[in-house]
Amino acid sequence: MIGRLILSYPDAAQRAGIFLVLALVTLVIYQLGVSPAWIGHLVPATSGWLSENPALARLVGSVMIALIAAANWKALRQLSRRQQIAAVWLELFVLLMLFFYSFDLSFTFIAKKIGFLVSQGVVTTLYISAISIVIATVIALAGAIAKLSKNGVIYGLATFYTSLFRGLPLLMQIYIIYLGLPQVGYVIDAVPAGILALSLCYGAYMTEIFRAGIESINRGQTEGATALGLSPSQTMALVILPQAMRVIIPPTGNQFIAMLKDSSLVSVVGVWELMYLARTQGQTEFRHIEMLITASMIYWMLSIVLEYAQSLIEARFGRFNVR
């Protein structure tokens, strides 16, 4: 019956749907308890009424936010797709900055400390992440080939490795490597311990990504390469991996971004990376939130760079597959 009404009165059904969506959005905003104080900032004359009628003021504020969101949606629909993406990014970024601004941050303190965060913390974070990424990729490729091997010993080693390092928390791995290896007579510094832990942990996750990518290639490719006289190693390097990269790159890029952020965990062993400096620099003047937000923004910027690099690599291997 509802379907028949919608087909019979499409305009009325559309208006009713819009009204229902607005009502639901208003209800959600009201239940979230969003403060209507922003109305008082825009229209100072309403400040007294807002304080005297808190429940009604919340409802009015919720309705206004829902209407603003609807008007914004309508305006965005008039733009091209590329313009819509740019506008959404700009609007959300402005809202994020306004959210941070409401924390009453000391921008003078941030400006004084950000140079040291970048010159010391970012540099340390980047070289730890870069080295770990290279080692993890090598480990993952070797582990994937081992898991595809028909040799029981090699397969057992690969499966035990992936099970162990995917099963243990990364923080625990850092502690075990940094504090455990000296117990057997091998003293390791904090930075190498962090790099080793990141490499082993993410190498285990990426092993499954590489294995799945390699197995996604049709067996006929291997048989054709063998018929042409290529050795197994040549087949893997020249035939299988170039085609598998289209499948491997997207999840591997996500792992790289996750590794970049998880490099903050090496601060627990005293490495002067970005998160460690954000905590310690904020303690001097009890400005913790300023440094944590600044570090978060820096991590985000680094992640955006990695996302862009990932998109370029995906596009490149996508062209190879088109050919």
From TrEMBL:
Membrane-spanning intervals of the chain: 12-35, 55-73, 85-103, 123-146, 153-178, 184-205
The superkingdom listed in its UniProt entry is Bacteria
How does this chain sit within the bilayer?
Answer: Multi-pass membrane protein
Q: Where in the cell is it found?
A: Cell inner membrane; Cell membrane
Question: InterPro entries attached here?
Answer: AA_ABC_transptr_permease_3TM (IPR010065), ArtM/GltK/GlnP/TcyL/YhdX-like (IPR043429), MetI-like (IPR000515), MetI-like_sf (IPR035906)
Q: What is its main location?
A: membrane
Which keywords label this protein?
Answer: Amino-acid transport, Cell membrane, Membrane, Transmembrane, Transmembrane helix, Transport
Q: NCBIfam families, from UniProt? A: HEQRo_perm_3TM (TIGR01726)
Record-stated family: Belongs to the binding-protein-dependent transport system permease family. HisMQ subfamily.
Q: What is this protein called?
A: Amino acid ABC transporter permease
